[in-house]
Amino acid sequence: MIEILKRKNSRIQFFICSILSGLLLGFGWPTDGNPIYLFIAFVPLLYVEVNSNLSLSYIFLFSFITFSIWNSIATWWLSYARRSDGSFALEAYLIPVFFNSFFMSIIFTFYSYLKRYTRSKNIGYTLLICLWILFEKLHLEWELSWPWLNLGNGFSNRIEWIQWYEYTGTLGGTIWIWIVNIGFTESILKYKKNKNILVLYNGLLFNIGKIFFLIFISNLIYMKYEGKDYNKHIEILILQPNIDPYYRKYNISTKNVILNLKNLINKKISKNPVIIIAPETTFPGNGNKIPINNINKNHIISFFRNYLKKKYPKTIFITGAELFISYNKNNRSETSIPIIFKNSSKIQWIDIFNSIIQISPSKKIEFHHKSKLVPGVETFPYKKIFFPILGNILLNFGGTTLELGKQKIPNIFIHPYSGVKIAPIICYESVYGEYVSSFLKKNAQLIVIITNDGWWSNSQGHKQHLYYARLRAIENRKFLARSANTGVSCFIDEKGEFLSSLPYGKRGFLYKRIPINNKITFYIKHGDYIFNISLFFTIVILLYIIIIIRNNKN
Fold it and tell me: Rounded CA gap, 33 and 157, in Å?
């Protein structure tokens, strides 16, 4: 009976520890959270795993509690998403929270299972870090991609701590968090074993040192950083039309869209080479799409081309547009959908793209189609498997009910009059570090982000998205111009600092002269090389475990 009560009390204690870990992760997440909590957030969960001697099902349960609380707190803003009929889409919140927590718990439980065969705590902890890195990289690449809570993103509101991301990317931040958490856990366990308070203090101070050493190094880089290789400057005009995405965006006429933008442009423009930037899916308005075939003859494109040619001949206009291309039945793509046009009774197959286009007075139109699509909103992940089960439930919120096409190879834009090379990034793509750097590998000199951040009201959603853009500026040491419809438009410098910004929900413009550099950072050259190192160590440790298991059988 006493033994049963002890087990019951232990499980209550472990349950509380799991909740504590989840709360610390949630309260440490940007933008309002304090990332210092991230350095101790996993300690209660690791303590449970080490001390519990429970079955794997209980390890999974306790870790699922932790990760569910973290996901629920950090991404609660997803509950603001609405269906196309205007009703709140609670599934837009619950589905990612459940699946992301589930996947994280699988990783942690898998580590707990494998660790029992390693015969060494250090090897076990190394395996945990490597498995987590592999999981975060998977979240950047597969069709269920949701890298929003990759641990390295957690420092986006403390950019003076992470100036070394130009060498490691966000995966370096992930390693930092795990190493410190593991160090604190081991200090507590050693004290619990020998009751020597000096051992505890030494361990705690040593791990606090791990935190402040990197913060100190980062602050040195931050203070001493001087922009170099500035070979030119470019004037940029950012537009923020502030059109409500749910009630006005797909109802406003093309004429009103054009007038709205013209009024903003005419308030501040010069005769020098300028880049004008407008938000995601600005054109064509009223729910229409622009055909890619003969795009140069489109009346909207022609209007702005003539407008620039007449008034601002050295200016280019970069904006979001909804484009489409049609196919016949025999050559259609995997993402194409059947449609009947008004003036035809025949079924045609089309691909619809969320695109960014560059309009110049005399050159041909350049465009890039969004590559990183939002799962459940712009693309149906693993459609062949899930569509027969779920139907269109995933595509009925977020302002669209269609699956979009995408582009595999990134394009860079070139300003025909200044020669500035531009990385055109659309909305969700700005969360993907190595993907953004792939544009810089092609010698892009300026990052331009267009987005529409009004889907989740004035919540943490648009703020987190904004702050993650700062990480891209640091990784690539490039200036960044961001145009957001009902979000926050801004200029960000090479250190991730905001130079100027327009607040959420305000119609207006920003104008700035930005220096351009040709710097190629270590991260641009090598990308997520930490993933490759982690994969190597994971394979080596797994082979080591296999050998141990075989020897035990023999």
Answer: 9
